[in-house]
Structures are given as C-alpha cells and as structure tokens.
Amino acid sequence: MRELISAAQLAKRIGEMGKEISRDYKGREPIFVGVLNGSFIFMADLLREVTIDCEVDFIKLSSYEGNASSGTIHLRKDISSDVAGRNVIIVEDIVDSGLTINFLKSRIEDSMPSSVAVVSLLFKREVAKLNFDLDYVGFEIPADYVVGYGLDMDQKKRNLKGIFSIEDELEKNCN
Ligand code: 5GP
C-alpha cells in the first residue's frame, strides 16, 4: 500500500475546512448529514473543528461490492431529522463516479431544506460526473481505489490513520 495522504495532512486540511464552514454558516445552525459507513471518522474530526451551533445525523447508502460500484444505490438507513427549512451539509468520505452524491443530494432536496451543500474529504475529479459543484473538498486524488481513515476494502482497513492507495496490491492479485 502507498500512503497518499498522511494523518498530519488530514488534520491540517480538516482544520481549514472546519474554519471555512464555521465562517460560512455562522447563525445558520446547519445539520451535518454523514454518509455511512465511510464518513464516520471524517465527520467526528470535522465536527470538532466546527465552532458554531450545529446538529448531526447519518444516512446509510451502499453501491459498492468489494472495490467496484454495483451501479445501484441502496438506502440502508434514513436520516431521522426533519430537514424542511434547515441548512443541510452532506458529509461524504469520497466522491468517485458521483452516482451516490447525485442521488443523495436530490433526495434531500425533495424534503424542502432551506439549502443543501456537500463536503467531501476526497474527490476523484477525473472520473466524477456531477450535476452540481461540490461546495467543500478536502483533497483531489487520482482514480485509484483508496483505503484508511474510515474508507474500507471489504469492510477492513477503516482504522488506518492515513489514506492509502491499494492499486499495487490489486494489480498483484490479478496477475
Ligand atoms: P460513487 O457513487 O461516487 O462512485 O462512490 C461513492 C461511494 O463509493 C463512497 O461513499 C464510498 O463508499 C465508495 N467508494 C468510491 N471510491 C472508493 C475508494 O476509492 N475507496 C473506498 N474505500 N470506497 C470508495
């Protein structure tokens, strides 16, 4: 595995993102909606860098089997908050094809929030096809499969402190 982003780089960038969001949302009491499972560590660290009043909720979606998208989004757990008239900030671990976030953003918009923004720790710009611009991005990365800091490979590797590319390992297993 090759380290793409270290724990120190993550902490620094997430600190900046927390400051930016706190400034943009002052007096607006946003609800952060984390996308499970991958965003749980990012959410915990980002929230502790946010200095304004806010709420937290989670939604669970899945499209991936192993390291490939099945192309179909399944809703595993819905949010419990009423977001009508509220400022929602969706918290994603990674935007890859864009399928999940396109689905989720329009689903939240159907509930008549006052605004919806998206923050994603990682963004694979080269491959993403989005109907809108992401509002806050931590790092743009190449289209390789990555693990660590909440992101998994068959449910493992979420506990790594940095972000690692596993492309070398995948190639080895295919040869
Ligand atoms: P998308 O719908 O944008 O293709 O993918 C979104 C979801 O797929 C992410 O929330 C994440 O669960 C999973 N995913 C996409 N790319 C990666 C990756 O490189 N590593 C891991 N661990 N998960 C990924």
Report on the structure:
The protein is 26% helix and 34% strand. It has helices at residues 7-24, 40-47, 99-109, 167-174; strands at residues 2-5, 31-36, 55-65, 68-77, 87-95, 115-123, 136-140, 146-147, 163-165. Strand 2 (31-36), helix 2 and strand 3 (55-65) form a beta-alpha-beta unit. It is α/β, with parallel strands linked by helices and 175 residues long. The chain is globular and about 45 Å long. The chain has a six-stranded mixed beta sheet with strand order 4-3-2-5-6-7, sandwiched between helices. The protein is built from four helices and nine strands; from the N terminus they run βαβαβββαββββα. The protein has one domain: Rossmann fold (3-Layer(aba) Sandwich). The mean pLDDT is 92. Guanosine-5'-monophosphate (5GP) is lined by residues 35, 38, 63-64, 69, 92-101, 145-147, 151-152. Guanosine-5'-monophosphate is lined by residues 35, 38, 63-64, 69, 92-101, 145-147, 151-152.
Q: What descriptive keywords fit this protein?
A:
single chain, 175 residues, alpha/beta, Rossmann fold, six-stranded mixed sheet, three-stranded antiparallel sheet, globular, binds guanosine-5'-monophosphate
Layout of secondary structure:
Blueprint: E1 2-5, H1 7-24, E2 31-36, H2 40-47, E3 55-65, E4 68-77, E5 87-95, H3 99-109, E6 115-123, E7 136-140, E8 146-147, E9 163-165, H4 167-174
Parallel strand pairs: 2-3, 2-5, 5-6, 6-7
Antiparallel strand pairs: 1-9, 3-4, 8-9
The protein binds guanosine-5'-monophosphate.
